[in-house]
Amino acid sequence: MQTLVLFISMMMTLSYGYQIISQKKETEQATKLRGCAGAGTCYLYQSSNAVDGDINTCTRTKEIGFTSPDKRTWWYVDLQNVLRIYSIRIQFKDYGEQYVMRQRGRFVGFSLYVSNTTIKEDRDLCYKNGPELPTLDFNTTCVKHGRYVIFYNERLDGTTYPTEYQTASVHTELCEVTVTGCKESGVYGYNCDVPCPNNCQEMRCDIVNGTCFGCTAGWVGEFCNISCPAGYYGLQCRSTCTGHCRDNLSCNHTTGQCYYGCGNGWTATHCNTECSAESYGPDCVYNCSGQCLSYLPCNRTTGICDDGCNPGYTGELCDKGDTRHEEKEMRGFGNPGLELETEGEVLTTNTKIDISVEDFDKAIVVLSENQNAKFKEEYMNIPRGELHPCDEGKKQENAAKNRSTTILPYDHSRVALEKSTKESDYINANYIKDVQGKKSYIAAQGPKSKTIVDFWKMVWQEDISVIVCLTNLKEGNKNKCAQYWPNSSDKITKGNISIRNQKENVYADYVIRHFRLQNCADKAERDVCMFHYTQWPDHGVPEPLALVVFHRHVLKTSVEHPGKYTLVHCRRVLLFILSYFSIAT
């Protein structure tokens, strides 16, 4: 018998050319014969007989028809993988010449489906027989791909069938179901030895001619050998490039990315994100000067301050100090003060001289006259621009660490990080003295994603016990500061420092976070408290009383957490910090 099975398999392979992909695979069928318990006669009719390679063993299901309770029957083979199919051959039970017409009448009306599931609605019709009677050795070409090959037949009450159809006691007896195709994916042809085109989706192609059933992203055509036209990309070339690639080049037809970078004013892999208020140019690589009039954003394409510059700055980019204004500032800085005449008295004040408490009300009245003329005059005498060298911050290797090209730390008071020979000691931060002239604070810019490691290195190095954050992470859709701390009950490691967020207290105007820091080198630990003021508008001032309450809370904690410095930062080390320090002093 084994010799016979082998002979039949060889003959079938030679006959079809394509590979037999159904033999010895898992099968299932409709209700078995009435009264079967799985042994004896039933064993002779099990569903797997149809794929055992032996024409003498057949499967047999419970009868269907007008006189039977069952009206439908089915059988399927599981190919175990989604394979490409070429043909399906069915050899129905042949009882001899005198029963041929009866058997063909039972066989007639069947359907063949190919599917990736056994669910009826998911099936793809391969062949529908009728009304002519099929031969008991039936073969059909079925160029499909799928995992299941399903045989289905029915005899429904109330349906008029041709006279050749058997409609009572219809037994389905499949002796051999032979599905041919290619066992391996990614090939086609008579011998399954020609690779499918490279850009066919999932490497699936027509088993006969190699045309693709679908193309990968960026390709179209029968053989997926035509790239998307300029300006389009993705599956079936349905996606449109953003049009913001550098030098007006088209995006990559496969991914939609701009491989040569973004044009002026745009960034991200698809160049679909506008530059933030702090940057401009191709891929947003340049920082705005930060000195556009009223601190408005610069033009994200050119970097130009379209509405002009803040006092003390000139140039299209507002990145040059106005020497005439600086001279005026320096004269104002050294003058004896502004004379305020009130009811025969003369009050003299400038940035170096305090106003006594008893004279404060009078001074405010005089300074507010003529639409705050004296306030404006005193404001114009405040020194601006670079009063000291900022050479370290201007170095090319440190430029990427700055949020602005004009807000840089003074060389004489900057914080220098401890470093190895190959590392930079630069961070955009300065020591600040208190009213007694003691260095008590460090003012820093809000960390960028690439400076978070340096930020925590400074916190550990300078023995900082309190961090005061005066900015939100975003203002609208614009990023203002990188989140350099872990979420509540979470932990992160930055460089040689691990930071655990032990708890958070959320208030109306601010959040207090309690961190436990550990130096991974020597396992030493410290506690750091972070005060995050969340209600400071980007272009405005906070509610005064809320800020005073916030500062008192910081001051109390600073006493309870003795450290060398209190670290204060906003977005770019400017007005927010100056306002905070004015309260602190």
Q: Could you explain how this protein is built, in words?
A:
The chain is α+β, with helices and mostly antiparallel strands and 585 residues long. Among the domains are: 2-183, Galactose-binding domain-like (Jelly Rolls, Sandwich); 336-380, no CATH class; 409-584, Protein-Tyrosine Phosphatase, Chain A, CATH 3.90.190.10. Helix content is 18%, strand content 27%. It contains 9 helices and 32 strands. The strands form 10 sheets. Strands 1, 2, 3, 4, 5, 6, 7 and 8 form an 8-stranded antiparallel sheet that branches. An 8-stranded mixed sheet has the order 23-24-32-25-31-30-29-28, sandwiched between helices. A two-stranded antiparallel sheet has the order 9-10. A hairpin with a 5-residue loop joins strand 23 (429-433) and strand 24. The chain is elongated.
